[in-house]
Design goal:
Two copies of one chain form a homodimer. The first copy, chain A, is an all-alpha fold. Chain A has helices at residues 44-71, 76-122, 125-137, 143-155, 157-167, 178-195, 199-203, 207-234, 237-267.
Chain lengths: 270, 270
């Protein structure tokens, strides 16, 4: 039975990141009918797009819901104050959170790599071999068939570590320059997403009219965004439509709850 | 040069998930000095803990910041209304978002697996072999050394696909029962995290006093939570202290911005 994790063995591999959905990278396959020509590295565009989607998605939902709720109190100024306060808090929480998560992920990768390096130096050759055998056995590969590969891999210290990081620890080397790009991208996407439902409140005097326009604009954008988001991920129109419905349902549920809640609380003595 | 992704080749592997940081699972190593005894599967506890941390972290920051900002307007009732509206919107956005992301991730995995199955059936044996060679070449393994393993792996259709899913696509089979657990866990953690800074406003009449107590309580919890969060992830006290500072800085920055913003807007004519 495994003992509890020691000081040097993490229970969890890295800091909670709001932005790790696509670390498991998808190959961009030049031609899906040809397996051997597949490329297994993700694009930079993928990372940026991922951050934009996460930030925009949350930004569009929560500030929209909050402003819809506050609008029931009848003051445009209050809606703008509450909305902007939420918008900037959310942007900071999301942007800085993503930045720090990326930094911690990098630190975690480096410390794991260092730990592997130390282990390689103090392990017996047979232990190194057994470790690779262990990984390959999961794919029902016999020791006999794996032996030449294991022998060659164990002669190359760096490659043995890379193999283990990839196959056993399943850690991918994070791009060190991406931490701040990720934070800025996600924070700004949250800001842009959250500003959209608020524009009517800036432009219109009557709060009921502004709410109406805000709902109309946000519904259209939620549908379009949900479609594009899923279409980009799964590349078929059915998934896109499903994404549009999902995004809309979340937005409407959140805004509806917020509106009813504020309206109900306003009538009672809290 | 890779062509643009086709209808069946996703640009991004799955829906944006706010909850994917630890899909790249860490082994719980019974003894960090013994490589060969390492176990490479994560625990269920890890997944739940991850969802709790993400939900609690965001819940503690944004509702705290918003209520601090609204408190500058002087009305406890307004703080409670705005805070609860944000809390429930955020909970819905986060919980449902996590649930749907997990569902999409599962669908994505299944569709990729099906695509691999179809490819295996229509590929020449040499193409299957070349694909495995291609993966192993990245670790500087010669074709000669890899040949027996490749031969054996290509005889077993299921194992070839698993190998490719793991090593080339780097996709991990999602637990199908986890989608709703993940959504509920994250949503409730957001709710609990966000309720903590609001309790003083429920209990106290004077909004300035409530703000003071709210800040004190939240600062303590941000520090403790930041420490535990990083300690659990990296298993050393320095990382824990660093986590405590990070979490506090994000919370204070968000709340400070929110407070100053609302105060400034309140003085001007919007």
């Amino acid at each position: 039975m495994p003992q509890p994790p020691s000081e040097s063995s993490p229970l969890l591999p890295a800091e909670p990141a709001i932005e790790r959905p696509w670390d498991v990278k998808s190959p961009i396959q030049p031609d899906s009918s040809s397996i051997s020509s597949s490329v297994s590295s993700g694009m930079d565009l993928t990372d940026v797009l991922r951050d934009v989607i996460i930030g925009f998605s949350d930004g569009l939902t929560v500030p929209f819901a909050l402003t819809a709720g506050l609008s029931s109190l009848g003051s445009t100024k209050l809606v703008i104050m509450g909305g902007l306060a939420e918008l900037f808090s959310g942007m900071i929480s999301m942007g800085l959170g993503a930045y720090l998560a990326a930094v911690t992920e990098r630190d975690h990768y480096n410390s794991e790599e260092q730990r592997e390096l130390n282990q390689v130096d103090c392990c017996l050759p047979q232990e190194l071999r057994d470790d690779v055998f262990c990984i390959l056995e999961k794919y029902s590969v016999s020791r006999e068939a794996a032996a030449p590969l294991v022998e060659e891999l164990c002669k190359n210290r760096e490659q043995w570590i890379r193999f283990r990081m990839d196959f056993s620890l399943r850690l991918e080397k994070p791009n060190i320059h991406r931490a701040w790009i990720s934070g800025v991208t996600m924070g700004l996407s949250y800001l842009v997403g959250g500003l959209i439902p608020m524009i009517p409140y800036f432009a219109m005097d009557k709060v009921a009219d502004a709410l109406f326009v805000s709902i109309a604009v946000t519904v259209v954008i939620l549908l379009g965004f949900g479609y594009v988001k899923n279409y980009v991920a799964i590349r078929n129109h059915r998934a896109g439509l499903w994404g549009a419905i999902q995004t809309l349902v979340i937005g409407v549920l959140a805004a509806g709850t917020s509106y009813v809640l504020v309206k109900a609380l306003d009538r009672t003595d809290v």
